[in-house]
Amino acid sequence: MGVTIKDIAKRLGVSATAVSKALNDRDDVSNELKVKVRKIAEEMDYSPNSLAKRLVTNKSNTIGVFMFSRQKNSGHDPFGFQFLSGIMEEANRNGYDIVLFSTDSDLLAEKSYIKLCKERKVEGAIFTGLRLDDPHLEEIKESPFPISIIDTEVKGNNVSFISTDNRKGVRLALNYLWKLGHRRIAIINGHKKAMVSHLRYNAYKEFLEEKGQFREELVFTGDFTERSGYLCGGKILELKDRPSAVFVASDLMALGVIKKFKEEGLKLPEEMSIVGFDNIFPGEFNEPALTTIGQNAFEMGVEAVNWVLKRINGEKGNKKILLEPELIIRDSCDTNQFQWLERVTAKS
Amino acid sequence: MGVTIKDIAKRLGVSATAVSKALNDRDDVSNELKVKVRKIAEEMDYSPNSLAKRLVTNKSNTIGVFMFSRQKNSGHDPFGFQFLSGIMEEANRNGYDIVLFSTDSDLLAEKSYIKLCKERKVEGAIFTGLRLDDPHLEEIKESPFPISIIDTEVKGNNVSFISTDNRKGVRLALNYLWKLGHRRIAIINGHKKAMVSHLRYNAYKEFLEEKGQFREELVFTGDFTERSGYLCGGKILELKDRPSAVFVASDLMALGVIKKFKEEGLKLPEEMSIVGFDNIFPGEFNEPALTTIGQNAFEMGVEAVNWVLKRINGEKGNKKILLEPELIIRDSCDTNQFQWLERVTAKS
DNA sequence: TTGTACGCGTTATCAA
DNA sequence: TTGATAACGCGTACAA
Lengths: 348, 348
What we know:
2 copies of one chain form a homodimer.
Chain A: H1 5-12, H2 16-23, H3 31-43, H4 50-57, E1 62-67, H5 78-93, E2 97-101, H6 106-110, H7 113-119, E3 124-128, H8 137-141, E4 147-150, E5 159-164, H9 166-179, E6 185-189, H10 195-210, E7 219-221, H11 226-238, E8 245-248, H12 251-263, E9 273-278, H13 282-285, E10 291-294, H14 297-312, E11 320-323, E12 326-328, H15 336-347
Parallel strand pairs in A: 1-2, 1-3, 3-4, 4-5, 5-11, 6-7, 6-8, 8-9, 9-10
Antiparallel strand pairs in A: 10-12
Helix pairs in contact in A: 1-2, 1-3, 2-3, 5-14, 9-10, 11-12
Chain B binds a DNA duplex through residues 2, 4-6, 14-18, 20-21, 24, 28-30, 33, 48-58.
């Protein structure tokens, strides 16, 4: 097939070893030879066989990536691509290849993720969208190679948790609403199979309990889809004593809620304030533009790679990396309530 | 490191060859041995070394994927992920690995795409977002392995062009506007480095020339970003004789145009009808919801893989695969103009 | 500074 | 049906 170091060696009348050394710029070959070898290599359009190299050095320079996308095929998961961009960028920058596995290929049904990785000799792996009820969780815990999991915490010797500081994010959102004067604040949470749902719910409960305003009846559960947000929006409208604001645990659901509210004739944001979570692109174009908690998905990808790389190089590194969330104020919360609150406060 | 067929062989007192055969379920080994080997393999948690296998069989079972994302890092490119989903799905389904290369890693600056691929012995490659001024175009033309390029046509013996039927898409859009009564229809096109821009412009020109309504002054050029759409929107507003409709060659730009129009107080869609191209998610949530030409990005990924696979298997296959576009009617075009047209027609 | 011999884990060939 | 041997392309120890 292609040209190998042997061909170059033959052409120059030297040994393959010498060529190998020259190509790798090692210092136990003459400069003279290096120059010659490089020239011929160029001439013959030589390209090293990474398979052979990896086999002999026992180093694959490869990271496996598994994406369990939340919204399969729909492309409604802009986050997936952002994670991936960060992962690619950082991996390639460090000389690592990314091999990508799809969610619902037959492969995954037959073989475990770990097995897939072992066969390819990946040095580490990154998981996205892993659910709490995944059948391979135990295996992951005992992985022989380092794994970064984005947004799901799995306790294991070789696994890290990369996420946004969800508690802080929720508090950012609720605190904003609180300062705007809201006291009855509902939550539409994601499904329980996602770890972030638990984190966000706990943070929500904690915050409102601190204020003495937690109400069980204001807790709603969707599944991160727009449709489920729409449905929960309907339920909220049926409440006898409506909340004045809703914290929605994902922008996609928030978009659904808003759709429902608008359909039912609510004036937004005057009659209902809404804060989302994620900062996905469509939120900007929604009307009203969605106020939300921003996550830096690209950076999460970068951190995921970095942790794996550190592990590979024997460094320890913190097994829990939480990035800073950011409150992005747009138009889906009624800021006039604030003045109303001040008036009330002034009176009392 | 891991356990190899040799270990299994030793344990069973047979040769490595026999084990290999048994594991591969070949018919020149006894069933008896197969059963034993499988049992021990399981027991020892054996996993084959794909590197070694690929080296010796000279078959990498790998497809390289290069994504030059239009909007780097921004995640504003929901298409990228949809392509990729289709690619992953179809490749994995056929037993192929995907190795992913990032746009702006240093790697790409140093080495050519082809070189990168050769080293990894990929059997084929897929390109997305490749620009007409890419420095490696010549090399791609002469690729020794099959390459599917999405949305860019590069003539070459081993390369295919996977795209939407852009001409048809444009005609779908313009015909819709035409039937609605529009005669002065502007275009905001993408930059000239993208092949689709040429295709869309040509189709636009062709259609309007057929109708005797092509006007040079109604042609505007953006760069696919929202910002550029916004800017072009401003220019359209400065026109003495404004068009009644705008065909925008990407939804992202369309969103920008609409933003500008709304800022300037235009009533939409009454005072300006807009049709986009792509059918990205945010368009649904825009107000007015964006009427657009839908492309099936997932399917494009699937087709790209299939073509490469066909080539690998020696089949010929059409080197130009055009998927059907779809007119998605939402709220950004004024449908009342139609009635107006009928009135006019009735009068004359 | 260069070359020889070997090994990485697997499959292919061919003889037993 | 099984096994010894060679080969894939490369890197490394060690000898020259």
